[in-house]
Design goal:
Elements lengths: L3 E5 L6 H9 L16 E6 L3 H10 L3 E3 L2 E6 L14 H9 L3 E7 L15 H31 L4 H18 L14 H10 L7 E6 L9 H4 L3 E4 L1 H7 L4 H6 L6 H11 L2 E7 L3 E8 L4 H8 L1 H5 L3 E6 H7 L2 H7 L3 E3 L9 E6 L1
Parallel strand pairs: 1-4, 1-5, 3-9, 5-6, 6-7
Antiparallel strand pairs: 2-4, 8-9, 10-11, 10-12
Helix pairs in contact: 1-8, 4-5, 5-6
Amino acid sequence: MALQIGIVGLPNVGKSTLFKALTRNPVDINNYPFCTIEPNVGIVTVPDNRLLKLADFSRSAKTVPTAIEFVDIAGLVEGASKGEGLGNKFLANIREVDAIAQVVRVFANDDITHVANKVDPVNDIEVIETELILADLATIEKTIVRLSKSVKSNDKDAIAQLEVVESLKVLLDNGKLAGTAQIDIEHEPTQDIVREMSLLTMKPMMYVYNTTEGQAALPSNLEQRPHVQLDIKIEEELIEMSPEEAGELGMETSLPGLITRAYDLLGLQTFFTTGETESRAWTVKKGATAPEAGGAIHSDFQEKFIRADVIPWDTLLGAGSYGAARDAGTLKTVGKDYLMADGDVVEFKI
């Protein structure tokens, strides 16, 4: 299953318009709150010039990019953690995604309704994150009650788990996101309890600032957050134009940067296979071993893995051929312990 980025934010900040521009899927876009009720899901290819160069190198008949999924989730309002608006539905949907892209309205436009009747991006971020924190605190408090019972029977795993959960509660009580916590991820019971709680604020998060052309520089309290900045309305207009029309108007999309940033937010990296039949980009988690990368292609490539020939994509192009790369010692044979690097070109032996 593809990993998912959930597009979240207050109503009327540009979430569905961004989703439409990213996926080119028709969605309901109107100037009223809760236009989106059921989440829309779209597959978005990840732009990568390395793949195109490899396809040219191999004279490939077909080129297949890798992809991630974006999910357009209903707008959230203050009080969502208590069921206000579509809060319960929103929180359930966001719990299912792997990372969060929070769309924040920075532009001013009297014709587009703001749920709070004023444009205040910092406050909007605080509203969203406060609701996520409150929802997580409710989850944590239930978990503490359950673990406390096991601690009374001197369950060592429960004792370790309770310590972690209580430390997360302190963090959230102070308005911090759970993802900022320093947790011993090597401890398996800790991993289990964190995974079980599926905390909303534990998910990786980036900010998408919806601005307008010629707008003043972002204030420092927005600039310092991990973000991309784009005019979402312009992006919507661009999907209706041909590349030639956009070029004549001097308009250029900023979406590739957003897609690449989202891909990185998910902790993903790309490796390639290339040949005359096809050149293809494959997705693995950072830190994946060679057999795990093989599993991205087919389970047999992981289960029956013997070795793999690996070379960085640019080194292969520089060598001019596999034979020249092998002669130069840059095409290496690796075993099961090899950790994949972003941009590796691989041939698996099973």
